[in-house]
Amino acid sequence: MNILLDTHIALWAIADSPRLNAQAKQAILNPKNTLWVSTVSLWEIAIKHSLGKGDMPVDAKQALNYFQAAGYQILPIYAEHTLAIAELPYHHQDPFDRLLIAQAMTEPMRLMTHDTQIEKYGSMVLMV
């Protein structure tokens, strides 16, 4: 299964955070799954880290190095992803998350998240 990790899940995974539940850890460690991190997440990390937001403990370059070392695939942003945003219901207002949702729907992939607002987008969401 192709799984797109949302930004926080990806950061928690590389840090082996206790915030990841057993279901998330099992899916991340399953060799049958291909794990993806979006360029959107790197963009979000770059912006929030430069603003001094406490929930982004590393900068985007460090994050990319960690993601690559963990074997995660990097998903670029394609025009189709941005166009798909216009079709999304407004369950969620965050522009980073909306683009992650559009990417997961377009590819298709499962989007692993802990964000209950994203869960409203249906079966492509893997809540952990």
From TrEMBL:
Originating species: Thiomicrospira aerophila AL3
Domain PIN stretches: 3-121
Alphabetized InterPro entries for the sequence: PIN-like_dom_sf, PIN_dom, PIN_Sll0205, TA_system_RNase
CDD domains per UniProt: PIN_Sll0205-like (cd09872)
UniProt-listed SUPFAM superfamilies: PIN domain-like
Any matching Pfam family: PIN
Record protein name field: Twitching motility protein PilT
